[in-house]
Structure formats: C-alpha cells, structure tokens
Design goal:
alpha+beta, four-stranded antiparallel β-sheet
C-alpha cells in the first residue's frame, strides 16, 4: 500500500477529545437532519455547510464486493461503518448523494477554518459521547467515527480509533485516488494519495 502523506503526520499518541462540541446542536433546524437509506434501512445524520449537505456518519451500505468491516467484526459497523475500495466507493452512495470531489472537500475545509483546523472540527461534528467507567466516576469521552482505520492492500486492517481516512472522488492516475486523513486529537486534516484498492471510509454529500 502506498500512502503518500504530503502535509500530514500520523500522531499515534494523539489526545482524546473531551467534553461536548456545540456545532451540531447550534445549527438551525433546516441545516441538520436525518436521512433514511431505503436500500438497507440505515439512517444517517447530516448537516448543511459550505452550500452542501454532508453526512456526518460513515456509510454502512454492504456492497456485494469491494467493501469490508474492520477486522471482519460486525460490532465495528455501528460506529465506524464499512471500508470501501475506490471503485466501489464511487458508486456506493444512496440515490441523490455522491462521493465528494476534492473541490467539495476543499469548500468544507475552508468553511471549517482551513487544513490546520478542519480535521478537529469535522471530527467533532460527528463525535459520539461514550460513557466509560473509571475508578472514581463515570466520565464522558468523545470518539469520532472518522478515525475508522484503513484496510491495506494485503487485507490487513490498521488504525481504528486512532486514525482513518475518507475517499475523494478525485483520482490522480488510473491506479490512485485522493483520500483525506484524520487523526484523533489532531486539529489538521491531511491530503493523501492511495492505491484504489485500499479500503477507506465513505462520506456522502449532495447539493
């Protein structure tokens, strides 16, 4: 697997998000909602930003080929969705939605404060609060579904809960396409190019 990290360093020691993020809760009612995928009955939260409607959950649609569950453990699907190769990702979104092009990713990144800040803000938009037991009390920690890990070309999985990436519909060669990378606790979003048979998450968008 050739992942060319151009502006991004994977920080395996990244900090957990704590507390709550107010972006989703503060949106006007017409700028957020829930979409039902009639193909399989899954629902997805969405927000409208930068003139587009973005799913703020990873796609879970099970395709006949070209998509996988991390470590083949179905328990991972609920939070992290599935990982798709690029050729499957490009046609996996529900009717009326599509895999975002780089121009659409760039509009979102600009709206979220640029590449140095958009990674954190986009992660926090879909942060799931999870109650965890500690020795002293119950504490709330945030986990973003964007850090869903990847599937390497050899079939191995890596990174879930620490880092992950989403495909762009923009490709750079017959064999490679653009993906956008996230690391838990990092403010930045990183642009990478990977082989199309790699497995990344899918975020769908519509106008």
């Amino acid at each position: 697997m050739r992942i060319k990290l151009r502006m991004f360093t994977v920080l395996v020691s990244a900090l957990l998000f704590t507390g709550s993020f107010l972006f989703y809760g503060n949106l006007n009612a017409q700028d957020k909602g829930i979409f039902l995928d009639k193909r399989d009955g899954h629902t997805y939260k969405w927000v409208k930003t930068a003139g587009l409607v973005w799913m703020i959950e990873n796609l879970k649609f099970a395709t006949p080929t070209g998509s996988w569950i991390y470590n083949n453990d179905t328990a991972n699907t609920k939070m992290y969705g599935r990982l798709y190769d690029w050729n499957t990702a490009i046609k996996s979104c529900p009717k009326g939605w599509h895999l975002p092009l780089d121009i659409e990713w760039n509009a979102l990144i600009k709206a979220l404060g640029g590449e140095d800040n958009a990674g954190e803000k986009f992660q926090q938009m879909d942060t799931i609060k999870v109650q965890q037991d500690s020795r002293s009390a119950m504490v709330t920690q945030g986990f973003s579904t964007l850090v869903s890990g990847v599937r390497h070309n050899d079939g191995s999985f890596d990174g879930m809960g620490v880092w992950g990436g989403c495909w762009s519909a923009t490709f750079t060669s017959p064999d490679e396409a653009v993906d956008w990378l996230f690391v838990k606790g990092s403010k930045a979003i990183g642009k990478s190019t990977s082989t199309k048979i790699s497995g990344y998450s899918v975020r769908c968008v519509k106008k």
